[in-house]
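FORM 12-B: Structure-to-Sequence Request
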């Protein structure tokens, strides 16, 4: 079954610029082997990631991600079945969101513990961010 999983976390990296290439290179290689696609966004000290692939592969990868010391407060925002991948061309797309960009405010809002755990509204906000990013960056 094809699934999507979106999570948010707080970065624990001292220097994102020096470490992100290592993170992305390893992720892209492993994701290609596992049939996983998706996108990683970074804004205001927070990561937002969408993973797409077979449900068991996604859940296995998420367990590893959740235990990675390079970030903390890892929280699933959305899990859903899907019929098609939105980011099928990317083993791991990457975008560092400028603080002035509307995505930064969206990610910050999703990362606010007050906004977590609310079923319908949060799923809508997560999907809106994903859809917006997809429309602007699709190949």
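FORM 12-B RESPONSE
SEQUENCE OUT:
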């Amino acid at each position: 079954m094809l699934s999507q999983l979106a999570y948010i976390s707080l970065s624990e990296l001292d220097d994102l610029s020096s470490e992100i290439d290592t993170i992305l290179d390893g992720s892209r290689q492993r994701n290609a082997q596992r049939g996983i696609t998706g996108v990683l966004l970074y804004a205001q000290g927070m990561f937002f990631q969408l993973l797409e692939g077979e449900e068991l592969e996604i859940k296995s990868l998420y367990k590893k991600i959740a235990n990675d010391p390079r970030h903390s407060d890892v929280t699933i925002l959305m899990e859903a079945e899907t019929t098609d991948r939105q980011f099928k061309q990317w083993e791991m797309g990457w975008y560092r969101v400028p603080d002035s960009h509307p995505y930064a405010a969206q990610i910050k809002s999703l990362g606010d513990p007050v906004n977590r755990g609310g079923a319908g509204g949060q799923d809508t906000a997560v999907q809106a961010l994903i859809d917006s990013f997809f429309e602007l960056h699709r190949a």
